UniProtKB/TrEMBL annotation:
This is Sulfurtransferase TusA family protein. The lineage of its organism: Bacteria, Pseudomonadati, Pseudomonadota, Alphaproteobacteria, Hyphomicrobiales. It comes from Rhizobium rhizogenes (Agrobacterium rhizogenes). One of its GO terms (molecular function) is transferase activity. SUPFAM superfamilies: SirA-like (SSF64307). The keyword Transferase applies. It comes from the Bacteria. Keywords: Transferase. Belongs to the sulfur carrier protein TusA family. Residues 9-76 form the UPF0033 domain. The keyword NAD does not apply. CDD domains: SirA_YedF_YeeD.
């Protein structure tokens, strides 16, 4: 049995920089290895979420275009 958390965070309707700021705050509350799935409609999130992950040491393992936005799957780094 795994003790890794999987959290879905709906940030649709928010504009830059809120998706990154709220994702960063949510990730801070998780432990290393936990997975955060973020849903956004902000077109700049494709660039901003990837940059945040690179900057903060998280792994962006999936980016998928869905409807009018994107879904990002992030594994929290150490």
């Amino acid at each position: 049995m795994s003790d890794t958390a999987e959290v879905i965070y709906d940030l649709r309707g928010l504009k830059c920089p809120l998706p990154v700021l709220r994702s960063r705050k949510k990730l801070a509350a998780l432990k290393a290895g936990d997975v955060l799935t973020v849903e956004t409609t902000d077109p700049l999130a494709v660039i901003d979420i990837a940059h945040m992950c690179n900057e903060d040491g998280h792994s962006l393992v999936e980016t998928v275009a869905v409807g009018k936005g994107h879904r990002f799957r992030i594994v929290k780094g150490a």
